[in-house]
Each structure stands twice: as C-alpha cells, then as structure tokens.
Amino acid sequence: SVDDSRLTPAQRQAATNLINTSTVAMAKFSDVASVEAAGYRSIGDSSTGFEHFVHWGYFSDSISLDPERVESIVFIVNPDGTRSLVSAMYILPLGQTLADVPEIAGELTTWHDHQNLCWDLTGTPHVVGVTDANGNCARGQFIATPPMLHVWMTPTPCGPFSGIEGVHGDSCTSHHPTDPSGPIISVDDPRLTPAQRDAATKLIAVSTVAMAKFSDVASVEAAGYRSIGDGGTGFEHFVNWDYFNDSITLDPDRVESIVFIVNPDRTRTLVSAMFILERGKTFADIPEIAGELTTWHDHQNLCWDVTGTRVVGTTDANGNCARGQFMATPPMLHVWMIPTACGPFSGIEGVHGTGCGAHGH
C-alpha cells in the first residue's frame, strides 16, 4: 500500500504520481477497439483469463515510464467473453534486466519479467506456449522479456503495482500460465485422472448454477449471508453462519461463503463461491475432489470480534491480536465465477497443495 509506513515520503509521492498519471492516461481507453485504434495488438494470451495488448512502437523505443507511451495494456477476460481494462503495464527496453529497474517506491513497485515464454515472431509477435522443464519450446522460440511494472486500474489485494510470476520484490500474486511441470491449474491438465476431471467439472457447474440467483449484495443478504467486514482488502466475504455451523459439506445450495470483489466505485461484483468445512476440521479431513487442482486453504492469522463473525485484524509476529481474539478457520475451497490465472479453485495464502494465487487475507 502507498500508506505503508516503511515507504519514505519520496517513495510514497512517486508511487502516487505514477498511479495518478497512469489512471488519467488510461481513461481514453474504454474497450479493446479504442486500444487497437491506438496501435496496440494482442499477444494472444486471452486463455489465461487476462489478455495483454502491446504497442510494439513504444516497446522498441528507449522511453520508460511515460504514461502517454505505455508499452502494454492489460484486459481481464470476463465470463461472457467481453474484456475490461484492468492495468497499464510499463516495459523497459529490450535487453535490460531486473538489475536495471528504476527506483520508484522500493518493494512496493514490484517489477517482474518472464523467463519461460515461447513466441511466434511471424506477423505480430504473440505467445504460443511456455518452455518445458529443460527450457525448450515445442512451438516458437524462447525470448526473455525485459522487466515490466503493472499499474492496476482495479483494486488488487497485493497492491497497485502487484507483480506476477518471476517477480522482483515482495509480490504475492500471479496471473500467467506456469510450465507443464508446475501447479495444476486447469481441469484439462493431463495429470488429473478422469474421475478428478469429472468431479472438478461437476463442482464448477453446480456451483455456477447455484450462484446464478445472486446478482448483488442485497440478494446475498436476503439469503442470510452477512459480511465479515473485510471489504478493505479488495474482496469482501459474506458468510451464512447457519450453513457454516451445520455438518453439510460441498452442497452448492448451502455454500458457506460468497465472495465479492470491491470495484473502484465501491460497488461489489460476485466472483466466488467458497465452501468451508465444519469448525474443528483440518487439512487431514478435506475430501478428495481433484487432487492438486482443488487447493483448499485455511487462515491461521485472523483476529475476530467477540461474536466471532467479523474480522478486526490479523495477528502480530507473536501470534497475538491487538483487537479481538484469534480463531483458526477450517479448510476452505474457492470456486471462482470469473477467469483466474491459477485455476477455478485457486487458493490463497496458507494454501494446501500447489495453488499459486493469493487475494490478500
């Protein structure tokens, strides 16, 4: 956060200026058509849930961190196939490395690069895969990217400059595909058994159908869900405490928690169903669904108010709460209603298995 006390005044001001100037520069881009009209072209990575458009003229020049010459613009791919602009992304000149990144705001501005992308350079450059365990490309050719820096136009739990795989600094999230030896993030992964694939596909389908009746916060609250007060993280969890306290597990009509993203205008958009095991259960008790694809997680650092229904903070380095009381959560499993780079069950901090995503608890 730009409010982090560890930033110097100069770093805080530099970060704020970059966010503000980038936001103003992005205001003229309302959709893919306006971005393409300005000379940007897709690198063909929409299947990851995000699509990057690069202006190759800006990429090839020697100008850095100019909000009027942003090298890349990033869209999220919505469930209906439309795109929404979510990030400006600055890219240093080709040949530069993480040793060359300019100082802006220290560990807040988490530059990253990619050391595993395979490119097809015929026509407009586009990504055609990732390298295998030996660094080879089945298609295209490997080209290391220069360092890049996101400036997010939407709230992100890991901060306005949140990095991705290959991060430099203390980033906590990823939105790019991993190599075939990495985490299982897709129901199409050949490492899943047919039974696991079928179980995962079914859970996604029935959860999506169950969530269709919830269009907004009001409809969720009318069904008995209440916020745990964590909207400041960029995501807000609503829990039905009757469902939480019963002994029923993985019932799409009795989902224990529903998660909303907090939009820039403070409205909420439903993004995930979240199943929670009974109180007292641990990772030893999680049901088998799809192995490492279904990444259960828990929380071992949350402080709750006296009712045990609202989060009031996190524990300090010694495990103590400045406010409220510590209570460990049982294991939980997301089923995302939006594309996520780490898969439809992407875990968060404290993940069980090889989940690769975090959303800021």
Please explain how this structure is put together:
- By secondary structure, the protein is of the alpha+beta class.
- 16% of the residues lie in helices and 20% in strands.
- The protein has 6 helices and 16 strands.
- The chain has helices spanning 9-26, 32-37, 56-60, 194-211, 217-222, 241-245, and strands at 41-42, 50-54, 72-77, 83-91, 117-120, 126-130, 141-142, 148-152, 226-227, 235-239, 257-262, 268-276, 302-304, 311-314, 325-326, 332-336.
- The strands form 4 sheets. Strands 1-2-3-4-8 form a 5-stranded antiparallel sheet. The protein has a 5-stranded antiparallel sheet with strand order 9-10-11-12-16. The protein has a 3-stranded antiparallel sheet with strand order 6-5-7, with no helix packed on it.
- The radius of gyration is 21 Å and the shape is globular.
- The two termini are 14 Å apart.
- Mean pLDDT is 85; it is low at 165-180, 349-355 and 357-361.
Calculate the terminal CA-CA distance, rounded to whole Å. 14 Å
Uncertain regions: pLDDT < 50 for 5+ in a row? 165-180, 349-355, 357-361
The chain-level structural class is alpha+beta
Residues in helix, %: 10-25%
Keywords:
globular; 6 helices; 361 residues; disordered C terminus; alpha+beta; 16 strands; five-stranded antiparallel β-sheet; 20% strand
How are the elements arranged and paired?
Layout: H1 9-26, H2 32-37, E1 41-42, E2 50-54, H3 56-60, E3 72-77, E4 83-91, E5 117-120, E6 126-130, E7 141-142, E8 148-152, H4 194-211, H5 217-222, E9 226-227, E10 235-239, H6 241-245, E11 257-262, E12 268-276, E13 302-304, E14 311-314, E15 325-326, E16 332-336
